[in-house]
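Why this split exists: single-chain examples teach little about how molecules sit against one another. For that reason, every record in the complexes split bundles all components of an assembly together and asks for one structure covering all of them. Below is a record exactly as it appears in the raw files.
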Amino acid sequence: MKARLLVLWVVVGLPLLWGVLKTLQNAMKLFQ
Amino acid sequence: MTASILDREHTVAAPGYNRYLVPPAALAVHLSIGQAYAFSTFNLPLTKLIGLSHSAPGDWDLKQVGWIFSIAIVFLGSSAAVFGSWVERVGPRKSMFTAALCFGGGFLVSAFGIHLHQLWLIYLGYGVLGGCGLGIGYISPVSTLIKWFPDRPGMATGMAIMGFGGGALIAAPLSVMLMDHFKTAASNGVLETFVTMGVIYFMYMMIGVYAVRVPAADWKPTGWVAPVQPKQLVTTANVAVDTAWRTPQFWLLWVVLCMNVTAGIGVLGQASPMIQEIFTGRVTPAMAAGFVGLISLFNMIGRFFWASTSDYIGRRSTYMIFFLLGIVLYSSVPTLGHIGSIPLFVAAFCIILSMYGGGFATVPAYLRDMFGTYQVGAIHGRLLTAWSVAGVLGPVLVNYIRQFQIDSGVPKAQAYSITMYIMCGLLLIGFLCNFAMRAVDEKYHYRGSTS
């Protein structure tokens, strides 16, 4: 159950983290 | 996959099931359908399907293409309202599966429309079919999450609805990457991107279909005891969907959501030109794009933050903060523009957009407090018609008032001041409706079996 929990959270967490990082990279232009 | 696997009775969780498996299932759906907020990345490429590097004769114009998103949002609200009771009856798995078929299928029908260069097929595909996928997918996991987390309903639904905000953060760079990847001398890559996204999103939503479970009727979190003396404005009774929308509370909440969304959505759509025009010569288009990204991020964070906070301070108090703080911030925007403070301007809009997202994410728990858990998903679906109205009202207010001001000779940098004060007026209406909120009269309570 714990492994399944981890896998599911990674599956949704990784794309979200990628999207947040890309957005932050873009947002940094505002302060350059 | 047979129909029976999708039925509610096949999704009842076994004893010992970890309830934290349900939020990622909901997130898989919401992260997918949140793509809608990033649809504008396709607007320009869709106007260059024939000319490729420029709009050629026969290419669609931006106005025509802009209708795709508008149709999708209208169908989001209306399908959530129409299919809410069905979603409640058949359970989250079948409704998530339907949403995946509609949303993924919408992309594929639209790709066919691009292939034939028939705009009506894109209106039908992404707009109507995809819009239904958005509406059904949006409400599918809400009541399930509320039932799994009776102790933290705000946090649970906030987590899922945060996914809708986060979906745009993924879809925007993903769309650009895919279009670049598929670009050839004969195609700008939109058709191939639509096919790829349709397949990817369908498969990703299927993770949610596979993982979602409903709790057994008598299930409660370990160690949790339902409060004997309920808090003010938190009911232990239930109200059926067909009764709920005859109560004043439903319409007060409808106005509360509509006003909160109208104020935020107008700004979100006009954020890039607005910051460039208010700070003329100081903010470049690239910096403005960074501003849009930043406020989108706060839109997402606000969904989780405010909905979780509402579990501790109450839903009505949370909306009081949205409206009062919103009035202070909106009314300070003209001054911040006048003194030329970009950091304070950006900070004000980050907080405003966090409260815009927070409004979406807190409302399911507010509905649960007012109407109980029995048909909260269906009631939520009907309330989302407020989003459809706000989706038209917000941009119209911001765009038309700006244009009217400019036509009247007001400098562009000051053309948004009146709009900001009108937003304050809308927030005041929302504040008054929220202030008037009282518990639902007992005559509306549902007396039948809720199992």
